[in-house]
Amino acid sequence: MVSRAALASSLGRSLRASRHPAPLLRSFATASSSVSTSPETQITTLKNGLTVATESHSHAQTATVGVWIDAGSRAETDATNGTAHFLEHMAFKGTGRRSQHALELEVENLGAHLNAYTSREQTVYYAKSFRKDVPQAVDIISDILQNSKLENSAIERERDVILREQQEVDKQHEEVVFDHLHSVAFQGQPLGRTILGPKKNILSITKDDLSNYIKTNYTADRMVLVGAGGVDHNELVKAAEKSFSTLPVSSNPIPLGRLAHPKTKFIGSEVRVRDDDIPTANIAIAVEGVGWSSPDYYPMLVMQSIFGNWDRALGSASLLSSRLSHIISQNNLANSYMSFSTSYSDTGLWGIYLVSENLHNLDDVMHFTLKEWTRMSIAPTSVEVERAKSQLKASLLLSLDGTTAIAEDIGRQLVTSGRRMTPQQIEQAVDAVTPDEIKRVAQKYLWDKDFSMAAIGSIEGLLDYNRIRADMSSLIY
């Protein structure tokens, strides 16, 4: 997650999670057979439909509490694209009960940290505080969610801040490539839009747009209040009843984890932005992936882990286990690559992001990459599958280091699936993946399938889409 400048030393907002797929899973439950007495996730649903979930650690002196909202940029229209992210900025500009200065001072006096981020499908506001200050942290979060002033003067000031942020994002090739990839893979659909929105929207979003987004999406049945670490479940439920009892409910409530919008269609297509002033070719290629609740979710993650990530700048680059990394390393075909498997409620993207300064051999790096993809449909080895499973489980374990990561895991799972899988259940799901399972999902999602591609930089040597597509369908290992 890329960080932005904080409002104050203890009050800040972090940039959108999930702007693009992470190289490995970043928010799932621990996978470790040695953890047989892992803390229980307690869940209570209030009368108004708000879900309260906690994972308590008796020894923890700090806690993370936050609200995960089942709404992000996907809940916008073309005309209001960027509203969810704009609201993230406005949340810290003062409420009916607290001025911006009073809010900053209160958070600082607690020694707490208040953050937020916006993704395509979720908006999150969370705080990290001492155990004793959890009720006050909940009160602050509920206040900024329900009572933000949204003053016109603050809205006007924030336009320039967001435009400067957009300029910074546009300098990051990886960010730009993944935004382009979404725009072609899901073109003409909400998932294809950027999170920040186009410049014209940033300049024209009004207070009414922000208020309407809150009224439509900030409803109790689409929210999960999460606590992790030094937090008592019953106390958090009481705090929720006090602070969130007046939350509105959707006119047509849909249970968490159910699709609340039209299903997205994946479109095989491409976008190329040639810029010879950029010394590298930056290319992302992806097939349609799977949603969070798909039975193929874990096999696809294991297959992603088989390819892994590689960067020649790392001292151990030539020693990595992936066959693709050996091919690229030995032939100097790329500077780095990152495999990814990102999921949304009903679809996903599975693929690879490559950066190369070997501009005369872009056809080779694409050829060998797709050849390895094809091999998954024919002959994945048991050794690489087992190794990938071990690496994936280790990654899942490391991703839960701290109360904030645990809270993120609980919130994400409940919002996207309506339940939280235990560490043992996730370990079993990963362990159940076999070479035959990898072969099956590869044949289902990779073999002779349309793909989407986004490329920027010095990409003159990149073959035509139809040539790559033909290569993909004719490769035999």
Explain this structure.
This protein is an alpha+beta fold. It has 2 domains: 41-243, 2-Layer Sandwich (Cytochrome Bc1 Complex, Chain A, domain 1); 270-474, Cytochrome Bc1 Complex, Chain A, domain 1. Helices cover 40% and strands 17% of the residues. The protein is built from 16 helices and 12 strands. The protein has helices spanning 83-90, 100-110, 134-146, 152-170, 173-185, 199-204, 207-217, 233-243, 297-307, 323-330, 362-378, 382-398, 403-417, 423-431, 435-445, 465-474; strands at residues 41-45, 51-56, 62-69, 113-118, 123-130, 223-229, 270-274, 281-288, 309-311, 336-343, 348-356, 452-457. The strands form 2 sheets. The protein has a 6-stranded mixed β-sheet, with helices on both faces. Strand 4 (113-118) and strand 5 form a beta hairpin. Helix 10 runs antiparallel to helix 11 (362-378). The radius of gyration is 23 Å and the shape is globular. It starts with 40 loop residues before the first strand and ends with a helix. The model is unreliable at 1-36 (pLDDT under 50).
Total helical segments: 16
What distance lies between the first and last C-alpha atoms, to the nearest angstrom? 37 Å
Helical content stands at 25-40%
The CATH class of the largest domain turns out to be Alpha Beta
Note the main attributes of this structure.
12 strands, 6-stranded mixed β-sheet, Cytochrome Bc1 Complex, Chain A, domain 1, 2 domains, alpha+beta, 40% helix, 16 helices
Short description:
The chain is 40% helix and 17% strand.
